[in-house]
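Thread: Modeling a multi-component assembly for a lab meeting

Hi all, long-time lurker, first post. My supervisor asked me to bring a structural picture of a complex we are working on to next week's group meeting, and I have zero experience with this. I have the sequence lines for every component (226 residues in total). Could someone generate the structure of the whole assembly? Inputs are pasted exactly as I received them:
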Amino acid sequence: MRILLIGQPGAGKGTQAVLLAAQLSIRHISAGDLFREHIDQGTELGRNAHTHMRAGLLVPDEVTIAVMKERLARPDTEHGFLLDGFPRSLAQAQALDGILADAESRLDAVLDLEIPEADVVRRIAGRWLCRRSREHIFHVDYSPPEVAGVCDVCGGELYQRDDDRETTVRRRLEVYRSETAPVVDHYQAAGLVTTVSALGQVQEVLDRALAAIGRDEADASGASGS
Ligand code: ADP
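Re: Modeling a multi-component assembly
Sure thing. I ran the full set together rather than chain by chain. Output:
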């Protein structure tokens, strides 16, 4: 399966992406994580990306498209993928359409995670991420770790992203409205979009997302062989 997960910052995309990809046995590819890897490795691309990310802006399309094109060419995506945070602009969506057409492949579904804006800042401001796994996400109120600052799953150090401050989050929301909302319209025209409410418990949102692609929990665990 080839799935896009779209949603405003704070909708819980990262959390759901990890769970969905595991349930469906497909590769989770996060544009933000790829940039953060570059930043941690101190590459030139990482330094360039960080300037934009810190300001709450999109990394320029040509850089993003090149990174994703390279990532999607790796063999581990052959049997499907779940894209998280790409495409985020119309130019990126058109580039992705071209990459898939060249590979004689196509998207199966686009899930649009929806959350009222009032909830976004509260969610993001309390978010702590695991530095070791990059995948485990906690929240001071909604899913606190057992020991403050330590990942329950792997013992990694928890940290807050430097683009998670309130003013930056507000800028990211503006960018979402102007740049990313047209991506939803683009795929809506192709009949691929299902809107999924991001409110409620993590498991409830996951169940809705699985239902939206015609997979209930039992199907999905069967497919992953567990
Ligand atoms: P969130 O979904 O909470 O905004 P991400 O980790 O997906 O978090 O993205 C963090 C930042 O990385 C974005 O605000 C942006 O600066 C950059 N980024 C991620 N994906 C893209 C993309 N497809 N195009 C441009 N910039 C991106």
